[in-house]
Amino acid sequence: MSGFNAPELVLRLFLRLRQSNFKLGVSEYMAALQAVEGGFGNDLEALADTLKLLWCHTLSEQSQFDSIWQTVQAQVQAQKRRKPPFPGGRRTESIRPSPAPERLQTPEPLRPRQEMPLEQRPKPELGSLPVQAPNLLISEEETTPLQAYYPISRRSMVYNWRYLRRPVPDGPRDVLDIDATIQQATRQGFYLAPVYQRRDRNAAQLLLLIDQNGSMTPFHHFTRDLVETAQAESNLDPDNVSAYYFQNVPTGSVYQDTYLTTPVALPVALDACDEATSVLVVSDAGAARGYRQRDRVRGTARFLRQLKQHTSLIAWLNPMPMARWVGSSAEIIANSVPMFQMDDEGLNNAIDTVRGQPLKHSYSASPS
């Protein structure tokens, strides 16, 4: 099939495999699109091998994949062979000229019909009538394009991090103080030298605790941007920005990498915090699946009590909208820590909270 549309094939196959109980989600679909954009689907055979490698995890799934792949290809080919509708709306029938009238002939006189005796009549032969198979068109599926959910952009993150400041005058003394210079000259009665002040340095310390994997998998892109912008694209000192990862609840230990392979004991990670350290927790708190789990609420409450022994500059950033918190563990946790949804306003309010300017936090189960 020349000139095939690889993204359309990927989407049709993705929907058909999900109907066949393949355990596929948004992350698997996005991984397939990235593979196609990277040049792994230049032809149909290469595309099939790539998708089978990404989406099939057992031998039974591989065997089902081949038949479903052939069916999806047949659907796309049938759609391409279909002729476009006749331009101008309803198609008119071509007018055929009526046959010329034949010459009138004198009818022959009717003759009496002679019937053949019954025993001499030929017996009819029984046979099967020709049957034509119905032309069944392959049913088409509605391929509604998947809509992406972008709670906050990277540019907004860079802009909001600029407000996290704690200026300390411990830099070089090279900032001209005009007011102090005028006062000194007025007090002495003559001008000797300008007055310089020390340059301010942003001494704000930030600790990011980020929920990883599980229900947070669709938001890995945003959590990665959050860490990168805080460390490299803000006015914060990179040495004062730390990021640790956990899954669901940070109990016992946290991890230094996104793959959760380098553990660090939670008390050791919190020992680096003092009363001036800003802590931002990023997690859906169970709102993504809508569960209300007692163990998760209790584990989070123990973690927050342990964290508040080191600092009170704490805020929680939830990637799920506030309306999704109702009925989940996030609804309970939001009453014990300032929690904001991950958007421009929510990140702005969270940064104000962790820099010592807390807002009046009152969570309502039915936000207006």
What does this structure look like?
This protein has 368 residues and is of the alpha/beta class. The protein is built from eleven helices and nine strands. The chain has helices at 6-19, 26-37, 44-55, 59-81, 154-161, 178-188, 220-232, 266-271, 294-308, 329-333, 344-354; strands at 167-176, 196-202, 205-211, 241-246, 253-255, 263-265, 277-282, 314-318, 339-341. Strand 5 and strand 6 (263-265) form a beta hairpin. The longest helix has 23 residues, at 59-81. The protein is elongated. The relative contact order is 0.08.
List keywords for this structure.
single chain, 368 residues, alpha/beta, Rossmann fold, 3 domains, five-stranded parallel β-sheet, two-stranded antiparallel ribbon, 9 strands, elongated, disordered C terminus
